[in-house]
């Protein structure tokens, strides 16, 4: 059964718009929580019977203070993003000129004209701009939603776990569905419009569309790096001086860095993460489209079959809508012990529901059989024809879908303080920060084993059944429940901010205990989200690599890993994630050093600050984070963006192929271990602070030597889990998609030999 052409034309934008409307409906429910004294409740009840310690001071004062803090956080986040986007606007102009110039001057290959190359340059540039703008919009909307919901979550925490959980999760879901809906809708509209100009040249159409993925990921890189430096500089500064030296609680209003710390949660963990996962979606979809364009689906102009990747994403939005109701209405978390379970069930239920839906889409949208071109072994015939059955594509999507879930579950095991690995890290704090760090590093390295095996199995099955198209659709499967993944990912920083606001507004220990429980679960869900992003990045990078090899006309018969150009590129590429990580971690360290010095200065020079009778200069710390992050994000970004251009143009397409493979192989394990190590250190600290078990109470609780050791481990892990680690998955996929976009230009440089090797051959 093959669907009529009208179905994808109506279903894809329809599902996108429905997701956007669902996001607005959830936002309206969050907006019912009013930040007005005495009425800070959902309309169906006043909730005063739930007020705890702060009731003695008056509800109105507490809520007004929470609203003021929310306003300061929102203002700081907006100011940073607008400044960052001005820098990115300049980058977009430079990159657009570069894309147009390099692709338009390419000498036409056989069967193509100069007008074809000019058209490719124009529309690749337009697609890049559209992808970049969508990425910017994704990050900005996420930040606005998070800063709108943080104080409301804190206010709701006075009524109980369930109201606070529903507020944070609904707000995260608003971001998830807005991003999924806008990303899919913009891509579908772009394809429909481009189709009018490309006519029957579908190969050229989808090669130009890859610019959409390039735009999305290039903005995500700067968003992740810049936001990560901002948030971790403030976090490290606030923790080292406030918690270790001055022995004051986390998010204490006396700490000068506390506002910058909470602003950072939104610009790094929310805006950066939103742009990152949008980039993953855009690139995985573009990879599947560009590979299928040279299959029989593209050559026969089978529009329904070609939209299979988009149909999977559209169906995923509907599945996620159904799943969201379970967490927000049918079975929300009502006690602390249910929080992580409820979030985990979101992943499991969405995966279970998506599986039969993926099968239906595969058999309904694709013909029973179609053919793909795959690399062959005969020198006379470099490509073989592979017959693919439609149910093969269901298998590849399902492998990615369930592989993502398994990566998520094992990430939870290694980063949640409910399980032994994190408890062992906490126990290691008995003998000081050194053993805490040793145990945390070991945990991170060990946690890379299962995800690597899962990705290897997914790659093997995907490639065996459908070549690079199978690998690309496995990546799409991993992101098939993107809206739910984003919801539980965004939930974490919102809960973290809520805890900070509860502390600064003086809501009492009971409220802070609830927000800490929400935040601890959020650390785990953030690690799960990073696991999805890293896994999908590995798969999509390999699919883009395959498309690059084809487009750059690399001779696979005579090329091997032992080719000196390929092997040299492989070693260089394997080094790049370490170089990049060194740059980003040192940037966090430099910014944190300036922050620590400023916080110490204020504690030493502002009379009455420790006593709570004087107000710290929050603005100065915000300025330090802003200036440091904007200045320090440029060198790592330049490293990633310039490497493919320099290697491809000067050293040839084979050296670049080796570079891409090396970066992928080393970057994935490094990203997984960094993210999980940092998450484990953070939750080990919270395990000691909460003291919910006999073992945790033995460690001494807040202010003890064990706690101080855990805080040091947490600060070491901050740049690992929130700056370097999450940025590495962008590095591997961004280099791959950039290489694919510029492949015609690289081939044009001395027929792929590279300018340097061409010159050496003439000497």
Automatic annotation (TrEMBL):
A GO term from the CC aspect: endomembrane system
Molecular function via GO: diphosphate hydrolysis-driven proton transmembrane transporter activity; inorganic diphosphate phosphatase activity
Ribosomal protein among keywords: no
Main subcellular location of this protein, as a coarse class: membrane
Annotated protein name in UniProt: H(+)-exporting diphosphatase
PANTHER family to which the protein is assigned, alphabetical: K(+)-INSENSITIVE PYROPHOSPHATE-ENERGIZED PROTON PUMP (PTHR31998)
Organism: Chlamydomonas chlamydogama
Membrane topology type: Multi-pass membrane protein
EC assignment: 7.1.3.1
